[in-house]
TrEMBL record:
<dbReference type="GO" id="GO:0046872">
    <property type="term" value="F:metal ion binding"/>
</dbReference>
<dbReference type="Pfam" id="PF01435">
    <property type="entry name" value="Peptidase_M48"/>
</dbReference>
<dbReference type="GO" id="GO:0004222">
    <property type="term" value="F:metalloendopeptidase activity"/>
</dbReference>
<dbReference type="InterPro" id="IPR051156">
    <property type="entry name" value="Mito/Outer_Membr_Metalloprot"/>
</dbReference>
<keyword id="KW-0479">Metal-binding</keyword>
<dbReference type="GO" id="GO:0016020">
    <property type="term" value="C:membrane"/>
</dbReference>
<keyword id="KW-0482">Metalloprotease</keyword>
<keyword id="KW-0862">Zinc</keyword>
<dbReference type="GO" id="GO:0051603">
    <property type="term" value="P:proteolysis involved in protein catabolic process"/>
</dbReference>
<comment type="similarity">
    <text>Belongs to the peptidase M48 family.</text>
</comment>
<feature type="domain" description="Peptidase M48">
    <location>
        <begin position="59"/>
        <end position="96"/>
    </location>
</feature>
<protein>
    <recommendedName>
        <fullName>Peptidase M48 domain-containing protein</fullName>
    </recommendedName>
</protein>
<keyword id="KW-0645">Protease</keyword>
<keyword id="KW-0378">Hydrolase</keyword>
<dbReference type="InterPro" id="IPR001915">
    <property type="entry name" value="Peptidase_M48"/>
</dbReference>
Length: 181
């Protein structure tokens, strides 16, 4: 009997490095669900990793897991938005914080902001992130998940003039050297 193979992305961000390593791995679908387990820096995927939802998660130690649906449903700039957001969590050391002591809304907006600047420095037009959250907001206008910011709030936060101006300045500095889009 052959196991059906699914794709997942594991991204490892070295704490003291300027490089981000992306590795697409193929793994057999789990036959019984289990929680994500972190063992010696690796992430063992649960059955959830094989679902088509648009989702990603970052862990202490610099590992990011991106659900298959994210890779299959989104275009390049949108995937960059999701990855940059998760890298933003790691840069700000959010996975190490105690959730009860920190506002989830504040954490998410901070990761969005850091991710926006990272996207710009990688040569992605930062306006893509705002468009991503606006489109998601239009698709899910009544979405509410605990104390997370709404998609509209995320788009508005990144679209603020001083935030976008900062990101566009970075983008314009790097695009003559390595434009992505």
């Amino acid at each position: 009997m052959h196991a059906k193979l699914k794709r997942k992305a594991l991204i490892n961000v070295e704490k003291d490095s300027d490089e981000i390593q992306v590795e697409i791995q193929t793994s057999p679908k789990k036959t019984k669900p289990n929680d994500m387990e972190e063992t010696s820096g690796d992430i063992v995927p649960s059955q959830e990793m094989d679902e088509l939802g648009i989702h990603a998660i970052s862990f202490a130690g610099g590992t990011i897991c991106i659900f298959r649906g994210t890779l299959e449903a989104l275009i390049d700039g949108d995937v960059a938005t999701v990855i940059a957001h998760e890298v933003g969590h790691i840069v700000a050391r959010h996975p190490n914080e105690i959730p009860q002591l920190v506002s989830r809304c504040k954490i998410e907006l901070e990761a969005d902001y850091i991710g926006l600047l990272l996207m710009a420095s990688a040569g992605y037009n930062p306006r893509i992130a705002v468009e991503f959250w606006e489109i998601i907001s239009l698709s899910n206008p009544n979405f509410s998940k605990g104390n997370y910011p709404s998609y509209e709030e995320r788009a508005n936060s990144l679209a603020q003039a001083h935030v976008m101006e900062q990101a566009l300045t970075i983008y314009k500095e790097v695009t003559p050297h390595r434009p992505v889009n």
